[in-house]
Amino acid sequence: MSHFAVHFSPIYYLLLPFYMIFRRPEFLLSAQAAVCFSGIIPVLLLCRRYKYGNTVAFLIGTAFLCYPAFTCPSFYDIHENAFLTPLILWLMYFIEKRSLIGAVVSGLLLLCVKEDAGIYLVVAGIYAIFVGKTPKYLGITLAAMGAVGFALTTFFINSAGDGVMIGRFGVFLAGGQDSLIDVVLNVLQNPAILV
User: Fold this and answer.
1) Taking CA 77 as the corner, what is the angle to CA 74 and CA 80, rounded to the nearest 5 degrees?
2) Among 7, 109, 141, 163, which is least packed, fewest CB within 10 Å?
3) Which residue, among 90, 100, 110, 101, has the nearest Cα to 46 in the 3D structure?
4) 7 — phi, psi (to 5°)?
């Protein structure tokens, strides 16, 4: 079975050159932990950007590194979701820095994590449009990238793979519905479902 039959995760290819040298499960777990904990860099850069003192930055960084839902899966499992948190944090850092190139690169890498990562990019784009002094074109670019990326990766999995795993969205579906379009329509028609 190909992983691409159920998820669009080319982000794993970033680990491939190192895996070719260290072909061990322990390497994969260690690499995943390193990826997870690399999110501390944008956290600390955001702290500096907001001019937090060293004590506050230290406490925020410690809370980040000790958050159990984030750290514990690195002990026993490998999953593409480990790339989401650091990439979203880098994306938010570049949005706050108003760097189109940095945000676009982070956004492209985010789209390589999973087929539904485009949703995060759309939300970040909406944030960039409506919050702060971020140029509107940056937010529009990110939201468009997210929508197009989501559509393309979903199309890829539905046509070349086993189809999008819709079961996890069951709470947003009524009887007889079985597509992501139904999920979106149900949430738009009744936002209380999402809340």
Assistant:
1) 85
2) 163
3) 90
4) -140, 145
Q: How far is CA 112 from CA 39, 81, 107, 117, 145, in A?
A: 17, 11, 9, 8, 12
116: DSSP letter:
T
Q: What interhelical angle do 40-49 and 84-97 show, nearest 10?
A: 20
Q: What is the dihedral of CA 7, 42, 95, 55, to 10 degrees?
A: 140
Q: DSSP letter for 112, please.
A: T
The model carries a pTM of 0.84
pLDDT tens track for 138-186: 999 999 999 999 889 888 887 877 767 666 677 777 777 777 778 778 8
Give the whole-angstrom CA distance, residue 32 versus residue 14: 11
Residue 59 is which amino acid?
L
Amino acid, res. 96: E
* Residue labelled with tokens 């956004």: 107
